[in-house]
Amino acid sequence: MSQKSVSTATMLFNVGGEATCVGCGCSDNDACVNEFRDTCDWLKVNRQTGMGVCSFCPEFLNHPLTDDVGCGDE
Q1: 3-7, 38-42, 48-52, 66-70: which has the minimum mean pLDDT?
Q2: pTM of model > 0.70
Q3: What is the CA radius of gyration of the chain?
Q4: Which residues fall within 8 angstroms of residue 23, CB to CB, at 6 or more apart?
């Protein structure tokens, strides 16, 4: 991968800042880990608000802080 590609990818990732799960508080840089050493993924993430729902907290999918307006799934 070229340096320009890496820089562009990094820049795109950081545009909205770090997102945090409304259920457990995990984030882009501090994921949940279960007893099998599996990590969580984003089920829903809104980069504009910095709030989302990780795969370990599906019961929070309808949480008002994760409104679909401007939502960008990863």
Answers
A1: 3-7
A2: no
A3: 13
A4: 53, 54, 56, 57, 59, 60, 63
